[in-house]
């Protein structure tokens, strides 16, 4: 399984970087975009470059400013020099746009494409096929603003389904769901994670450390699922030639494959 929790931290708050890494998130996204005011962006970029030179970058992602903004080109140049290995590109609207970003980065740098506009949804298949793109993320708030959609629930079912389908078609890891804005409503967060998981997402963007544990647990197999997987795999070893029943339900290859995924669950790099 791939990283479940992606915790944002403002790029102009270096005193929070290590705290974010210690918060238990699978990945930390140092944000040079929305979390940093325009007047502070240059200072944030310079400070982040110095910090990255000596930091453990294995769980770090840098969200640069969007293509077309005054800060984008220098953000990408800084990432190229810093040794960061994963970049989140906001407002990912086309494959050509991302290919231009990739061309300015070292070949080993991977891209998380943040889909948060109608243009990005329409071009999602081509975006997912860009070689350096390893995962799609859903910028729900910005997408709703761009599309004129009110509501983050069933109103976005179509887009969530498309993101899962296009990720699978391109051979990418399952996509990352958008943020939950209610910081003090952990039950709402749990509901959002459960919905995202049912749709086939395996990760979520977090905006506060208190959200991390719920997200991690929500995307990990629970004890009931692990026990079910163990029963399926035990029965599979006894019936290697065909379908069989577990708990009164038919089990065939897709079900066995799911049981193996649950049994072998582990978190990988972002």
Q: What would you note in describing this structure?
A:
The chain is an alpha/beta fold and 270 residues long. The protein folds into two domains: 5-218, Phosphoenolpyruvate-binding domains (TIM Barrel), CATH 3.20.20; 223-263, no CATH class. It is built from twelve helices and ten strands. Strands 6-5-4-3-2-1-8-7 form an eight-stranded parallel beta sheet. Strands 9-10 form a two-stranded antiparallel sheet. Helix 11 (223-238) packs across helix 12 (253-263). The relative contact order is 0.13. The model has no long low-confidence stretch (mean pLDDT 93). Its cofactor is Mg(2+). Keywords: Lyase, Magnesium, Metal-binding.
Fourth-level CATH superfamily of the largest domain: Phosphoenolpyruvate-binding domains
CATH architecture of the largest domain: Alpha-Beta Barrel
Distance between the termini: 10 Å
CATH topology of the largest domain: TIM Barrel
Query: Assembly state here?
Result: single chain
Roughly what is the average pLDDT, rounded to an integer?
93
Summarize the structure.
GO terms for molecular function: lyase activity; magnesium ion binding. Substrate binds at residues 63, 116. This protein is α/β, with parallel strands linked by helices.
